[in-house]
Amino acid sequence: MAKAVRFHQVGGPEVLSWETVEVGTPGPGEVRIAHEAVGLNFADTYFRTGLYPAPLPAGMGVEGAGVVQEVGPGVTSVAEGDRVTYTGSPLGAYSTERVMPAEHLIKLPDAVSFETAAAMTMRGLTSAYLLRRIWPLRSGDTVLLHAAAGGVGLIVTQWAKLLGLNVIGSVSTDEKAEVARNHGCDEVIVYRREDIATRVRELTDGAGVPVVFDSIGATTFESSLKSVARRGLLVCFGTASGPIPPIDAMQLAVNGSVFVTRPALADYIADPAERAVLAEELFSMVAAGHITIDINQRYDLADAVAAHRDLESGRSIGSSVFTL
After folding, report:
1. Residue 315 — very low, low, confident or very high, per pLDDT cuts 50/70/90?
2. For 65, how many CA atoms within 13 A lie in the half-sphere containing its CB?
3. Residue 135: φ, ψ to 5°
4. CA 95, 96, 98 angle in degrees (round to 5)?
5. In which band, very low, low, confident or very high, does the pLDDT at 155 lie, cut at 50, 70 and 90?
6. Torsions phi, psi of 212, nearest 5?
7. Helix, strand, or coil (residue 202)
8. 191-194 long-range CB contacts below 8 Å, 24 or more apart?
9. DSSP 14
10. Which CATH architecture has domain 135-262?
11. Could you give the CA distance from residue 63 to residue 51 in angstroms, rounded to a whole number?
12. Which residues of the chain does CATH 3.90.180.10 include?
């Protein structure tokens, strides 16, 4: 038996419940993993609220790190005792132990701790595809990054600086602005008192930026679109403030023949070989200290309700994890 966070109906944080569950034995292609740390991601709230539909009742969470306890028939990619991390379906990471498909597991180097892995596997791989797969960014380019003091934002900023990029970050408070600057942002816009698009145009001599990375969604879409340079790209990879509004194709022309994409991490790590390449690049930079992972919030797994409330309130800075 194990303990897990589950939800039986969609809604606010209060629908999460701490339950005793039966783990079971891994079947073909599956493993049983004992978690050492579990990731807390804003995407978790999308499942809880029903924005991302899931059959109910359901487990919660898609990211964890731990040790393989048992392997099922046909599993050759990992062995009992391996240190592993993962991100992706099926739901159920908010648990002390679980059975899950082995195909999602990534072997974890000894130089990367379980907590660090749980704090960065989703965020780090997201940062990897944003910077390495979406657009042919070149040294000297300037990008606009929303939520620059968030978990993804801090990794993207550090990685972007390693690639020679200039980063304009947007944040909600002066405290977060300081954090963003300390991690490499060249300019920071506090959007509660500055107009983002106006400031971006000022900082780029009216040209705008070739790429905008927007994880906020509804409240930032318009300013993001107005910040993109001619024939540039708006990357809408999150909806923290709500879904992006319907796109009028003519507005893309009016704003400079710009492109818009709404990518999902799953499509950039579906190929195990590509996932391995991105993970290796990420892990090597973290192990070498070129990218630091700030874990600023730690929770007991039983305190998932409080963790979700903190996450949705905007109080969180950097990454959050559940410790076991």
Report:
1. confident
2. 23
3. -150, 145
4. 70
5. very high
6. -115, 130
7. helix
8. 191/220, 191/223
9. G
10. 3-Layer(aba) Sandwich (3.40)
11. 18
12. 2-122+274-323
C-beta neighbour count of 28 within 10 angstroms: 10
We find that the CATH architecture of domain 2-122+274-323 is: Alpha-Beta Complex (3.90)
Contacts of 280 (CB under 8 A, 6+ apart): none
Distance in angstroms (rounded) separating the CA atoms of residues 165 and 178:
19
Q: Which amino acid is at 203?
A: L
Specify the pLDDT at position 68. 98
C-alpha–C-alpha distance, residues 43 and 104, integer Å:
18
Q: Report which residue type is found at 72.
A: G
pLDDT digits (tens, 9 = 90+) for 254-292: 999 999 999 999 999 999 999 999 999 999 999 999 999
Of 318, 271, 314, nearest to 291 by C-alpha is 318
- State the Cα–Cα distance between residues 67 and 84, nearest whole angstrom: 6
Summary count for the chain: helices (H), strands (E): 10, 16
Long-range contact set of residues 12-19: C-beta below 8 Å, sequence gap at least 24: 12/48, 12/49, 13/48, 13/304, 13/305, 13/306, 13/308, 13/309, 13/312, 14/305, 15/48, 16/48, 16/60, 16/304, 16/305, 16/308, 18/301, 18/302, 18/304
Average pLDDT, the chain: 94
Summarised one tens digit per residue, pLDDT across range 34-49 is: 999 999 998 899 899 9
Average pLDDT over residues 180-200: 95
For residue 188, CA distances in Å to 148, 171, 180 come to: 8, 7, 7
- Identity of the amino acid at 22: E
